[in-house]
Amino acid sequence: MIAIFVSIRVKPGLRDQFVEATLGDAIGSVRDEPGCFRFDVLTDDSDPDLVHLYEVYADQAAIEVHRTMPHYTEWSARVADWRDGEATRVSMTTSFPSDDGFRRQKPHLPE
């Protein structure tokens, strides 16, 4: 599994709108993409204008599929002007849960 951690700075006063829009992408990702096993939306406690995304995908192909999905393309267009600078991204390989552990969790992910 491939995990990515993305940090996005949003313009002041737009965090709540950004998070609301991002929830649509997150829910669509885990619901509609067989290769997406996790999509967490996190707000930074020490910086109200910083939002983090933690996502887990089966492989690079699943990430590429994600970027073509309507919920992603709509989200990307909607929030483009709300960002304050470039996002930072860290790519990782998961160790725990195991690949099978992620697969077993997927049917139980809430919306």
Features:
111 residues, alpha+beta, Alpha-Beta Plaits, 4-stranded antiparallel sheet, 4 strands, 38% helix, globular
N-to-C span: 22 Å
Q: Return the CATH topology.
A: Alpha-Beta Plaits
Query: Treating each run of at least 4 consecutive H or I residues as one helix, how many helices?
Result: 4
Helix content: 25-40%
Widest sheet: strand ordering:
2-3-1-4
Roughly what is the average pLDDT, rounded to an integer? 93
Find the count of extended strands (DSSP E, 2+ residues).
Answer: 4
The largest pleated sheet is described as:
4 strands, antiparallel
The top level CATH class name: Alpha Beta
Give the DSSP E fraction (strand runs of 2 or more residues): 25-35%
How many structurally independent domains?
1
Q: Give the low-pLDDT segments.
A: none
Describe this structure in words.
- This protein is α+β, with helices and mostly antiparallel strands and 111 residues long.
- The protein has one domain (2-93): Alpha-Beta Plaits, CATH 3.30.70.
- Helices cover 38% and strands 27% of the residues.
- The chain has a four-stranded antiparallel β-sheet.
- Helix 1 (15-32) runs antiparallel to helix 3 (70-79).
- The protein is globular, with a radius of gyration of 14 Å.
- 15% of the residues are buried.
- The model has no long low-confidence stretch (mean pLDDT 93).
